[in-house]
Design brief:
Layout: E1 6-12, H1 19-27, E2 34-41, H2 47-57, E3 61-66, H3 71-81, E4 86-89, E5 95-96, H4 100-110, E6 115-124, E7 129-131, H5 157-160, E8 168-171, H6 172-177, H7 191-200, E9 204-216, H8 232-246, H9 250-270, H10 276-291, H11 305-320
């Protein structure tokens, strides 16, 4: 059998309601020479049986099973078993335009890129509306040419793209050469992979056409586990900083990194409820802001005045307790 052009890797955990729509939109892709590696992460809702049925129907669907270990471990498992020249790490609750893989593949091949970023939008299940997400790709910070490197981005390197993997396609040799792996933790497991790729890639490309629909709402997406694993974002930030040190570029990206660390910390704090919010606030103010390099920086150091004001509010709320 010929090697597939693209290996699609999907971690699946209790996605019974969505995995069929996801797989149908992949099996109907205009690029047919693909493999779809579904890693059942110990599902208990019958998702594994649905995957096996699709595998019997279409030989391009490959099902792997593991005990529940999280999406990061599942993606690494799929990566190890993949045979394609290019890699697409997708989420089991999203769905895709028919030409998504072909457009991604053609773009990455044309520019001989290490990875390509694809356009996406959000699909809200309650209203059945498609909503644009301009914050996912800061187009005004891209250079007017392709391919490019991170040094040619005009804004914060870590905010031009979002640190998730599902809207990107990677050249597998590049991934292996730079030993890129997902952190095997419950949430924020792709940040290290994505931003390590960003700062090591020699050629990056973008296809701004909306090709991916991120499902929002419904309460079963991977993001809902953040409440139970709220420390993961901090571990991801520490691992990213270590990678920057290892690449000998932290000195160059320190201000971008600290600004992003504040941004990501505040975002995570905003998305959790009590009592997690209080516990996270205590950790941030008592230890983490200092460790991440945020503490003691003047107002002028921060790119976003509103984020700096929110940071001060968090500190004040901590002091009042």
């Amino acid at each position: 059998m010929n090697k597939p052009k693209v290996s699609v890797i999907i971690p699946v955990y209790n996605s019974r309601d969505y995995i069929g729509h996801c797989l149908e939109s992949l099996l109907n892709q205009t690029l047919q020479n693909i493999e779809i590696i579904c890693v059942d992460d110990g599902s208990t809702d019958g998702s594994g049986d649905i995957l096996e049925e699709y595998s019997r129907r279409d030989s391009r669907v490959i099902v792997l099973h593991q005990e529940n270990a999280g999406a990061g471990a599942a993606r690494n498992y799929g990566l190890r078993e993949s045979r394609g020249k290019y890699l697409s790490f997708l989420d089991s609750d999203d769905f895709f335009e028919p030409e998504m893989l072909e457009k991604g593949w053609k773009t990455i091949v044309h520019f001989k890129a290490d990875f390509v970023v694809l356009g996406s939008d959000m699909y809200f299940m309650d209203t059945k509306e498609y909503v644009q997400n301009p914050w996912v790709l800061h187009k005004n910070e891209l250079p007017p040419y392709m391919p490019f490197k991170y040094r040619e981005l005009t804004g914060n390197v870590f905010k031009t793209f979002v640190g998730w993997a599902w809207d990107k396609m990677y050249r597998k040799e590049f991934v292996l050469e730079h030993q890129l792996l997902f952190q095997e933790q419950r949430t924020s497991n792709d940040l290290l992979f994505v931003f390590s790729a960003l700062v090591t890639a020699k050629k990056i490309a973008v296809n701004q056409r909306v090709l991916i629909h991120q499902r929002r709402g419904g309460g079963k997406s991977l993001s809902v586990t953040r409440e139970k694993s709220w420390q993961c974002f901090y571990d991801a930030l520490l691992a990213l900083r270590q990678r920057l040190y290892d690449e000998n570029i932290y000195w160059e990206l320190e201000r971008d990194y600290i600004n992003y660390a504040l941004h990501f910390s505040l975002w995570n704090l905003k998305t959790v409820a009590e009592p997690t919010k209080t516990m996270m606030t205590e950790k941030l103010c008592g230890e983490w802001f200092d460790e991440l390099g945020v503490t003691g920086k003047p107002k002028e150091y921060f790119y976003e005045e509103e984020e700096y004001r929110n940071y001060l509010k968090v500190i004040e709320s901590y002091k009042r307790v």
